[in-house]
Design brief:
Strand content: 25-35%
Helix content: 25-40%
Radius of gyration: 27 Å
Shape: elongated
Strand order of the largest sheet: 1-2-3
Oligomer: single chain
Amino acid sequence: INSACERNWGYTADELVGRSYLSLLHLNDIDRTLQTAKQVINGQPARNFENRYLHKNGSIVNNRWSMQWSKAQRQLFCVAHDVTESRRALDALQASEERTRLIVATAHDAFVGLDASGIIIDWNRQAESTFGWPEEKARGQLFQEFVVSPPFRALYWGTIEQLKSASCFFTTNRRIELSAIPRAGHDLPIDIRISAIPSG
């Protein structure tokens, strides 16, 4: 047990030696940790296994482990990395993304998300109502062919190309008026705003 373990869990080496590691584990992670340890002892090294420990002060510490069993010494060798802060940041990001998904899903305007090639990857309820197609039919379609009326496709694609070539691509909002072809088949005049969002 090194000084990093002491910092990680708040206990001194004397307090940790001889103590079962199970007593430090978050209750919800005990079974999963035991199962992983069993797999390692049976010859399957574990890398990047995460679980939660309880700090001496009662706070939760997230650890990422690499584990290997030594047959010769009949010992389990473990290396832990404290990933508490990165886990908190990831949880906060996921919560933020979930809030954004809920806002988009319940927006009163049609929202259509496209990837860089123009393939539909998001399609909210209002888009279903406006264009008549359910999300499962819209996803994977090329937006300009699925939604934009043929006489307006050049205008739409030209606008996209202009935005892509602009140095302020990710800060530009472009508004254009064109005609769409909803499921019902009649031309539908629409006003769209195009914004680029960096991802990955």
